Amino acid sequence: ETGVTQTPRHLVMGMTNKKSLKCEQHLGHNAMYWYKQSAKKPLELMFVYNFKEQTENNSVPSRFSPECPNSSHLFLHLHTLQPEDSALYLCASSLLAGGPPSQETQYFGPGTRLLVL
Amino acid sequence: SQQGEEDPQALSIQEGENATMNCSYKTSINNLQWYRQNSGRGLVHLILIRSNEREKHSGRLRVTLDTSKKSSSLLITASRAADTASYFCATAESSGGTSYGKLTFGQGTILTVHP
Questions:
Q1: Strands B10-14 and B61-66
Q2: Which chain B residues are within 8 Å of A25, Cβ to Cβ?
Q3: Are the Cβ atoms of B43 and A99 closer than 8 angstroms?
Q4: Which percentage of chain B shows pLDDT scores above 90?
Q5: Which residue among B33, B42, B107 places its CB closest to the CB of A42?
Q6: What are the chain A neighbours of B67 within 8 Å (beta carbons)?
Q7: Which residues pair with A13 in a beta bridge?
Q8: Is the per-residue pLDDT at B75 higher than 60?
Q9: E-strand stretches of chain A
Q10: Cα–Cα distances in Å, from B110 out to A97, B7, B70?
């Protein structure tokens, strides 16, 4: 257990559905991240939140909409996804984003395996 | 090409042998980190080396960093079957010594340790 939980662990959705992924960290961290991991591709950073403020949007399509209501919770709202969006979505947290190296170690959740039909 | 490329892409060894994985990157970095991922699971942080450090140890892990060559290596000594996993390097890019606050991951090395 890393102190970062993600729900659901598995999700199957159609292209017209709307769903949300949830991430919660119990580490007292101030930065949270969404990553996408597809087969045969490097882990792709999607969004970064630092103290609830979005500090990075890595050219992510608008069908992915993040929400960070507080430093402990992070959501990824999904709508009208495409089959190529099927992947493992990983959430991570760190003490800070952009702080001293010792505060940038990231702790990952187990991921949500998403399949878009 | 991308930041943080690992070499080799796959490595198969016997228990007790040492495993060495390499990572190359292209930009200035604040620090470099190594992570491990068991199949289909989240990543687990292994070790962080700062840009002004050359070598670091943690248990059976030894990491080196050569900023002049923009490369790092991860050595796992006396490997065990339980070390079987994917290993990723991740770089924290920086400008003027200040981190941008995000990590860029490589494609990883798949390590298989046979009992």
A1: unpaired
A2: none
A3: no
A4: 70
A5: B107
A6: none
A7: A116
A8: yes
A9: 4-7, 10-13, 18-25, 31-37, 44-50, 53-57, 64-70, 73-79, 87-94, 107-108, 112-116
A10: 28, 10, 22
Of A104, A105, A111, nearest to B41 by CB-CB distance is A111
Site from A58, A104, A112, A114 to mutate, B interface, most B CB atoms within 10 angstroms: A104
- Assess whether pLDDT exceeds 90 at residue A12: yes
Closest-CA residue of chain B to A111: B42
Contact B91, B35 (CB under 8 A): no
Structure tokens at B10: 């796959």
How confident is the model over A30-83, as pLDDT tens digits?
999 999 999 878 899 999 998 999 988 888 999 999 999 999 999 999 999 999
Q: How far is A9 from chain B (nearest CA, A)?
A: 10
What is the rounded CA–CA span in Å between residue B66 and residue B84? 26
Q: Is the pLDDT of residue B24 over 80?
A: yes
How far apart CA B13 and CA A22 sit, in angstroms, is: 38
Per-residue pLDDT tens over the stretch B32-71: 999 999 987 889 999 999 999 999 999 999 999 999 999 9
Q: Does the beta-carbon distance from B101 to A56 stay under 8 Å?
A: yes
* Interchain contact A24–B (C-beta under 8 A): no
Residue B96 pLDDT:
56
Among the partner residues A48, A88, A107, nearest to B45 by beta-carbon distance:
A107
